[in-house]
Amino acid sequence: MRVYFVVVFALLSLVCQAQKEDKVLQQKLQELVKGFKGDVGIYVRNLKTGKIAAIDADTLFPTASMIKVPITVGMFDKIEKQEIRYDSMLTYKDSLLYEGEDLLGSFKDGEKIALKAVLMLMITTSDNTASLWCQLMAGKGTTINAWLDNNGFKQTRVNSRTPGREMNRTKYGWGQTTPKEMSELVVRIREGKVISPRVSERIYRNLIRIYWDTEALSQIPPYVQVASKQGAVNQSRSEVALVNAPHGDYVFCVITKNQKDESWTINNEGWVLIRKVSSLLWNYFEPDSKWKPAKGIEEWY
């Protein structure tokens, strides 16, 4: 009898999953990724209808800079616990520098900056120096990973500078996630369910002010609010976006790995794919929209 109920439950779960699948969109996405030279993971959920389309959405991929979303969650967890104040003034040290084009990295040793500004830079401009500083303050990844695990995110982890994660760092880099988990983390922030409503609201406000807007965001009208985070390393391109669309919110995440195209131009195959997916979804969910991306903008990059 027990086995009977287990089988019935499994069959009902499969039926419910099939009912939630957007088969038309699923087919369109599968056509879009054909011929891609590398591995692709995609997850899409219409928050209004609950319908889903996915391609390897539960497969592990590198996060690259998308790991800054969990890092910011880890920092706000400490703020909410009153272990550090949101309006704290911090002192920048040269030892924090991560070589690159970061704004914070241009600071002089001993300069002061507010924690809230560091948190903004980590997300808005994807400042690596700011991000590593926040990761250090949040607990070197260990504390962040504990929060993720305790809140149902079993695959998303910080690897870099985190004890016991060396093998994972070798394989996935700074962090690892799945398209589904990264999408659902942003959904939970949107719903006010990460740590507290006020924390979720503050994180969401940072996520809607993104400097890096040439990929998924470029295919969505500039007057439509989108919460997003992007990531890129040599063989991987990624982006998660929650679109506050007129006909209902939708979330999606595209991640690649093992790309043959390691170029850093706007025509990188991974970035092209992200733009195509974003364009497909906007026009699919907003079929009456007459907006089109302005021509010639790509010439600037």
Automatic annotation (TrEMBL):
N-terminal signal peptide: 1-20
InterPro entries in UniProt: Beta-lactam/transpept-like (IPR012338), Beta-lactam_cat (IPR045155), Beta-lactam_class-A (IPR000871)
EC main group: hydrolase
GO molecular function: beta-lactamase activity
UniProt keywords, alphabetically: Signal
GO terms (BP aspect): beta-lactam antibiotic catabolic process; response to antibiotic
Domain Beta-lactamase class A catalytic stretches: 41-256
Catalytic activity: a beta-lactam + H2O = a substituted beta-amino acid
EC number, as in UniProt: 3.5.2.6
Protein family: Belongs to the class-A beta-lactamase family.
Protein name (Swiss-Prot/TrEMBL): beta-lactamase
